[in-house]
Amino acid sequence: MDAKLRDLLARVHELEIVARRNVSSLFAGNYLTTIPGRGLEFHEARKYVQGESIRRIDWKMTARLGFPHVRTFLEERQREVFIALDVSPSMATGWQEKTKLEVAVETAATLALSAVNAGDRIGFVTFSDQVLEFDRPRGGKKQLFRSLKAFAQALDRPPEPCLLSDPRCAIHAMQRFRSRSFVVFLISDFIDHDVPEDLKYLKQRHDVSLIQVYDPLEYASTELVRLPAYSPEGRASISAISPGLRARAAGASGAGSLEEIVGYLSGEAVKYGIQLSSLATDQPVNGALLELFQAKRRRLNR
Predict the structure, then answer these.
(1) How does pLDDT run across 233-246, given as a tens digit for each residue?
(2) Among 121, 149, 180, 251, which residue has the fewest nearby CB atoms (within 10 Å)?
């Protein structure tokens, strides 16, 4: 076995260990989504809780017992999960212990392992301004290894220059399977407001979540610090900037303050009816995913 392959396998193994640690801290049931599997299995009958949708009330049971009751069901598994990972140059930047890409890869690996543990099939696509790696949803540990390998290689591969990251290429790749329904996680920094209108077509059949990964220093505004910098996407240029300068630059194509970009992404999520989660590179991945799953559960129970 040559050294390059040995290093890659070591990276995949390390990534799996990190993912398993994250998954073990997510309590059972958080992974449920709006797309069921091949059927529903009765779980239990319980009293209606104020705030739940009245559509969930079992009226026959309510009439018999004299108090509103609901029946709860568990999804049968074998759902199909697609993980779309932005590996464009801007993702490889960062001033924390981990870059945005490292945090995004850890997130993708945790989602992949969660899916496999739940008995689901996983597919993946890595992209910048074009699709770099793609595999349709498959089940089993072999597919988990393929996914982790693709994510690990994204860390080792120098990012290729591109004008802008383009999630549309990932969406179009997934849309080739028009007759199927997927649970989709789109992971990106969305630094150039690159939330495509194509999401409205993806949302018609699929359960879609956006996961924004950001470095807090990108949005911290101060002129007391000057850092050497270059443009990771678009026409490359080298200069010295202060943190937050991008927010103040006249005519900048990207976001301003963190509040502005999160506000923009939240507006797009509401417009397309999808879930949004924001993850800072100095925060634990498992906590962000726990919040995402809980938000999806609350949305499902409305």
Answers:
(1) 655 555 555 555 54
(2) 251
Q: In this structure, are 45 and 148 located in the same domain?
A: no
Q: What is the pTM of this model?
A: 0.77
DSSP state of 35: S
Average pLDDT over residues 49-76: 78
Q: Are 62 and 167 members of one domain?
A: no
Structure tokens at 249: 């630059």
List the domain range (segments joined by +) for residue 52: 40-75
Residue 64 burial (10 A CB sphere; 0-12, 13-18, 19+): exposed
Residues 140, 172, single domain; the answer is: yes
Q: Are residues 14 and 61 in the same domain?
A: no
The CA distance from 211 to 106, in Å, is 12
Are 129 and 135 in contact by the 8 Å Cβ rule? The answer is: no
Cα–Cα distance, 87 to 170 (Å, whole number): 12
Name the residue type at position 106: E
Backbone Cα Rg of the chain: 21
Is position 29 within any domain?
no
Residue 62 and residue 103 in contact, taking contact as beta carbons nearer than 8 Å = no
Distance between CA atoms of residues 284 and 273, nearest Å: 26
Is 52 within a domain?
yes
pLDDT for 252 beyond 70:
no
Q: What one-character-per-residue DSSP string does 166-218 give?
A: -HHHHHHHHTT-TTS-EEEEEEE--TT----TTHHHHHTTSEEEEEEEE-GGG
User: Are residues 274 and 249 part of one domain?
Assistant: yes
Q: How far apart are CA 246 and CA 218, in angstroms?
A: 8
Per-residue tokens: 228:
């050497």
Q: Same domain, yes or no, for 90 and 227?
A: yes
Compute φ and ψ for 132, nearest 5 degrees: -105, -45
